[in-house]
Design a protein that fits this description.
single chain; 115 residues; mainly beta; seven-stranded mixed sheet; four-stranded antiparallel sheet; 11 strands; 57% strand
Length: 115
């Protein structure tokens, strides 16, 4: 089994920043890609960014320039640095990991951008 625990969400004003973290534990010997997705109320879950164990990153076009994904392989942790946040970034952010071809999800962390 693989466990993913997210942290770092919260309430932030427009233009503010947040850093999300997601720590993987359990049977993660073949941990490969990790990433972040988000789901806003009434919308489908969408990709934010992914990062491979070697550091290659992929971003959704709308996230490029404001969001940065990074990873600490020694800690099995992935981060999402979010800058210049906008109200439309309000969503539940989910951590994702691929281990030996299987997909795992965290419980989600709420990010609310509001004045």
């Amino acid at each position: 089994q693989v466990q993913l625990v997210e942290s770092g969400g919260g309430l932030v004003q427009p233009g503010g920043s947040l850093r999300l973290s997601c720590a993987a534990s359990g049977s993660i010997f073949r941990l490969n890609a990790m990433g972040w997705y988000r789901q806003a109320p009434g919308k489908q879950r969408e990709l934010v960014a992914t990062i491979l164990s070697g550091g290659f990153t992929n971003y959704a076009d709308s996230m490029k320039g404001r969001f940065t994904i990074s990873r600490d392989n020694a800690k099995n942790t992935v981060y999402l640095q979010m800058e210049n946040l906008k109200p439309e970034d309000t969503a539940v952010y989910y951590c994702n990991a691929i281990v030996a071809g299987s997909y795992y999800w965290g419980q989600g962390t709420q990010v609310t951008v509001s004045s």
